[in-house]
Please model this.
Amino acid sequence: MNAVSKANSIVAVRLKKVIKDKGIKQAVIAEKAEMTAQELSDMLNGRRIIKVIDIQKLLEVLGEFNVDANYLFGIEEVGKK
Model:
């Protein structure tokens, strides 16, 4: 595991799970978060570090899908209902 993958690990794993479980397209998340699909893919696959500004944008988008920061950071087992 490279340093970027390690730094992104919990957020990337949880974000991938949300995308899969809720059937959301990565491109939709990326567009709403004002990033390219490639940038999001790179973050999820450890090729680009997830910055604080990225997390803020992602959380705004994920709020639309009833996912909160606690879930994304692994503080709670499940997102908001």
Notes: Residues 3-22 form the longest helix (20 residues). The mean pLDDT is 88. The chain is about 65% helix and 0% strand.
